[in-house]
Structures are given as structure tokens and as C-alpha cells.
Amino acid sequence: MAWIFLFLAGLFEIGWAVGLKYTDGLSRPLPTVLTAASMIASVVLLGLALRSIPLGTGYAVWTGIGTVGTVIFGILFLAEPATALRLGCVGLILAGIVGLKLLSNT
Predict the structure, then answer these.
(1) What are the boundaries of each domain within the chain?
(2) What local confidence, expressed as pLDDT, does residue 89 receive?
(3) DSSP structure string for 84-102
């Protein structure tokens, strides 16, 4: 269950990272409220996951999911570059996430 919490926390991290782009410096009420809700959900779920997942593993996976998801969102919806080198770096992050999960005892 902890890994499910961690995965969901990572998805909410993507939500608040993307949401920040649309808050216009926290001046737009609806995007700001949705972004804040995503932040809270992300941290609460991370906290639940860290009950049984080691801190370093949990934090690295959480930020990795957020990073990869945000980059993919940027490529798909914001016309950010999808160069081979950039995608290779994202692949390395994904490999790290999978490696940490496979090496975890939880």
C-alpha cells in the first residue's frame, strides 16, 4: 500500500508543479487553490508512504515521478523540446526510480 501512496503522491506532485505555471504568481484564485490542494495531497500521501518506505528511497522516487511527469507534460502540452539528450536524461531518472523500487525491501 505504501508504494501506491508514493505513486499517488508523485502524481499530485506533477499536479502542483504544472499548476504553478497557471497560477500567474499565485494571483489567479482557482488555479492557486487547486495547486495548493495538490501540494497538500502530495505531502500527506508522501508522509503515509514514508511510514514503511525508507526516507531516501521515498523522497527520491517522489521527486523522480514529479520530475519525469512534469517533463512529459511540458513536452506533450507546452511544446517544450523533446531532444534525444533530454529524453535520455529522463530515461536515467526512470531507471533510478525502477532501481530503487526493485532494491527496496518494502
Answers:
(1) 2-103
(2) 96
(3) HHHHHHHHHHHHHHHHHHH
* Inter-CA distances, 74 with 32, 42, 90, 99, 104, Å: 19, 20, 13, 25, 30
For residues 70, 59, 34 and 41, what is the CA-based torsion angle, rounded to 10 degrees? 140
The pLDDT tens digits of the residues spanning 17-60 come to 999 999 999 999 999 999 999 999 999 999 999 999 999 999 99
As a whole number of angstroms, the distance between CA 105 and CA 61 comes to: 15
pLDDT at 105: 77
Q: N- to C-terminal Cα distance for the chain?
A: 10
| Rounded alpha-carbon distances, angstroms, from residue 93 to 12, 20, 56, 67, 99 | 18, 22, 15, 8, 10
Nearest one of 17, 69, 7, 64 to 39, comparing CA atoms: 17
Q: What mean pLDDT, rounded, does the chain reach?
A: 96
Q: How many CB atoms lie within 10 A of CB 24?
A: 10
